[in-house]
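Q: Give me the 3D complex with adenosine-5'-diphosphate.
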Amino acid sequence: VRIKGNYPHEIGELAATLNYMADEIVRSNQIKDDFISSISHELRTPLTGIKGWSETLVSGGFDPEETKLGMSIISKETERLIGLVEEMLDFSKLQQNQMKLVIGQVNLKEILQETMLNVWAKAEQKQIKLVLEPGDASYIVQADGNRLKQVFLNLVDNAIKFSPNESTIKLVIKELAPERVRIVVKDSGIGISTEFLEKVKDRFFQVNPNQGGTGLGLAITQQIVQLHKGEMHIESELDHGTSVMVDLPLLEKKPATPDLTKEAN
Ligand code: ADP
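A: Here is the predicted complex, encoded as structure tokens.
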């Protein structure tokens, strides 16, 4: 519905505002429709795998190797479904301001090491090297360790997804003045063009909607960072790579703990 006609100035302005709102509603409905269609697809793919393999296994007659393969696919696809559902639940919690943080003192280097362990297998599949540059001190922040890990897992996951085989992904901790600390996740992957750089943090947005995923990851990540009184920035150059910067309030800086793996050698 559009409001037309010659009206006095204020009414003209009101009409323009209402027209703008109507356009926004159409646009946001379109975004929601696209989201529902992409999430349905995301849910259907693993379900099809689970259904296919469970039916095949029930029919019997396989050797232990084949049975193991089928079971491992079922288990992997189930994990994927749980991940998707958790992502949607997190998103909805954040929308309703219901995400509760369990705050403690968190050593950033430890969180990044745990993150790297979690994604190691995925990086290995593409022979991607993960490098941690922890800085020359132990940086402690006040945070929900699990939620912070979720932030870095998502960023490194994206970095792996959008990087070529045999490339390197760096996780860098830097001190920012005063009393702030920056974690950078830097890849040398496909990059993001300037046209889309502002949009990738929007919910549901994907540069290429056919590549899987929901477009919720960065929106969730940014909101978790903001709940920690932090900020997230993205710098990227098409075909050269992307750096995501997470800046957080620094609680304390301690002398670096010795690297036990190096000492042991
Ligand atoms: P999704 O879960 O669908 O990947 P995200 O919110 O995490 O959603 O990311 C949104 C979009 O931003 C991605 O679909 C991709 O187009 C782009 N993107 C995110 N991280 C990177 C990266 N490291 N390199 C290139 N493009 C990226």
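A quick observation: The pocket of adenosine-5'-diphosphate is lined by residues 158-159, 162, 187, 189-192, 200, 205-208, 213-219, 242 (CB under 6 Å).
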